[in-house]
Specification:
Layout: H1 15-34, H2 39-48, H3 54-62, E1 77-79, E2 88-92, H4 97-106, E3 110-113, H5 132-143, E4 147-150, H6 153-157, H7 162-171, E5 177-178, E6 181-191, H8 192-203, E7 209-211, E8 217-224, H9 230-240, E9 244-247, H10 255-264, E10 270-273, H11 276-291, E11 299-302
Length: 312
């Protein structure tokens, strides 16, 4: 009897047929899986095995933005390394401590935030090194190895503006945009009071601040989410003559006083102040919809940072 080491292989005349059957069965099984409800998860799981780095995702995003990358920009990494492999992504307005904790709990290690992480436009932390709030937040990011990248300038530079697109979708106003001025809308007539209620309902917020006559009919709407600044807001009112300006925030001694005086002299000008974070949140939620097809298989979710204020 031959030992295993001496045993000679006898050519299997049926091998080509068996190989064909096995290959066909595998292909048929995969095709069948594609029809199952769980297949999308399985497909995504397989794709995710070859993950992206933070920098690869940033490059992919900026490739879609005319004029990007920008030399002087606030769109920089605020924590972590550009070489880190991404497990999943969270989009948000502000990378608050609560958002960071939720991201970590979900297994995400890359937060794309629209606004500053460290309490000033440039995210300059030289003056915060001994601050316990800054240190707690940075320690939290380091503990969970979370990269934060700000996506502000380039998202507004995108054609169309990514934030404005998301806000228009949230309000259902895409069809009312004036071609010559994307921040000006002509909507069906509605009273200022009802418009304020409508904005709250559509954005899921409990309150807004209003200047103007609650019974005034509004048709021409200037929509400037976020913090455009007093001069830009006032100049936009001068240029477009809206019935109402809807914005994220104002300097109370600038735009608010201008609108108040306009009303006192007899003009029909109104103002709805939504709050900065909630006024642009829909634009960062839209980023999930925009980005997901470009990163198939990678989990992307939006975690709202919400309004920091409450009213007593």
């Amino acid at each position: 009897m031959s030992t295993p080491g001496q045993m000679q292989k006898t050519p299997d005349k049926n091998w080509p047929r068996r190989k064909f059957i096995a290959t066909s069965f595998t292909a048929l099984s995969m095709s069948s899986l594609a029809l199952l409800p769980g297949w999308s998860f399985a497909r995504n799981y397989i794709t995710t095995s070859d993950s992206y780095t933070v920098q690869q995702i940033i490059d992919l995003i900026l490739k879609e933005v005319p004029g990007a990358p920008i030399a002087q920009t606030v769109d920089t990494i605020k924590s972590g390394s550009a070489d880190q492999k991404v497990t999943s992504i969270v989009t948000t307005m502000f990378a608050t401590i609560d958002v960071i904790k939720q991201a970590a709990a979900s297994g995400a290690n890359f937060i794309i935030a629209h606004e500053p992480t460290f309490y000033n436009h440039q995210d300059d932390t030289s003056w915060l090194k001994q601050d316990e709030v800054y240190q707690y937040k940075m320690d939290l990011l380091n503990k969970h190895q979370i990269v934060v990248w700000r996506f502000h300038d380039a998202w507004h530079m995108h054609k169309p503006d990514g934030i404005l697109t998301g806000v228009l979708q949230a309000f259902g106003w895409e069809g009312y945009v004036q071609k010559e001025e994307p921040n000006l809308l002509v909507i069906p007539s509605i009273t200022l009071k009802d418009l304020a209620v409508y904005t709250k309902r559509k954005l899921g917020i409990p309150q807004v601040r209003v200047i103007g006559n609650a019974g005034q009919n509004c048709t021409r709407v200037a929509l400037l989410p976020g913090a455009a600044g007093g001069r830009r807001q006032i100049e936009f009112i001068q240029k477009t003559k809206p019935d109402v300006l809807i914005c994220g925030e104002v300097s109370e001694w600038e735009t608010a006083e201008y609108v108040r005086d306009a009303n006192l002299m007899g003009q029909q000008r109104s103002l709805i102040v939504l709050g900065h974070a909630v006024s642009e949140e829909a634009g960062m939620q839209y980023l999930v919809q925009w980005l997901q097809p470009k990163l198939p298989g990678l989990s992307i979710q939006h975690i709202p940072s919400k309004n920091p204020f409450s009213w007593l």
